Amino acid sequence: MARSGVTIHIHLSETECTNIPKRGHWVLNCDARAVARLEKLYSTPQIVDQRRRLRGIVSARPGESGLDVGCGVAFLACELAGEVAPEGRIAAIDRSPASVQASKLRVAGEHLEKLVEVHVGDAIDLQFGDETFDFVVGAQVYGYVQDVARAIREAARVLRKGGRLVVLESDWDMCIWQSRDRALTRRIIAARGAAQFAHPHLPCELHRHLRAAGLSLSAVQSFSIIETRYDPDSFSMGLLEPLRDAALKQGITEQEFVTWVADLRSMTSVGEWFFCLDRFVFTATK
Fold this sequence. Notes:
The protein has helices at residues 32-41, 45-58, 75-84, 97-109, 148-158, 182-196, 202-212, 235-238, 240-249, 254-266, and strands spanning 18-19, 28-29, 65-69, 89-94, 116-120, 133-139, 159-177, 216-227, 275-285. The chain is of the alpha/beta class. The chain has a domain at 18-171 and 197-225 and 279-285: Rossmann fold (3-Layer(aba) Sandwich).
């Protein structure tokens, strides 16, 4: 089953997450600092529990072959490897070389080289043959892909007949933060959607893309990431840096953002800290 004792330390000199030029297929290009952020964020109890739920939906079985699209730092890929072992295989791809380096270090640290292969790859041009995998999973990745319809078609292409595509995405209209200035909160959350996602409301659009790719929607499930107390190491606090970057790009001032964060933190003193983000898991079969 899942192993969780490996910490990855990245030492690279690339730039921070930046927008890719127009010809880029994904919205973000992540470097070492962003990878370290992912490492911390994906280690929070909320995201550990999210992966547990997602693995239950994927229902990987021993001997199966699976693909993790946009693997990040390979937490999920390594956990799935324990479920397809000993004869199964997991392929994992990410567009970021820094993420792929971190993933390879994790795979080696958990002694999973015979089960997990990690490569630089693009969701819209999967370098695998037709009908290669029993399942494909994409967790918080397709929302970044400009040509999401093509990416879903590619996932369908590499699935074997009867195989399943499992997609987890957020709708950022469904992000709640208790604040005295709700209008500013909405502006900041909307700024992240505008600056950092190609499709910030992908759950509303996903069904038609699945149908167009020849897949049958078999289930949609939702769950919420909920926090009721302030914790500097929580999932929501891990969002503050990307929120700030996006807010400043969208015309929100540094002072507005600093004031907003102070207001959020003040909620804990009156027992009103509250954060919630709704996420949706779509399962489609070929």
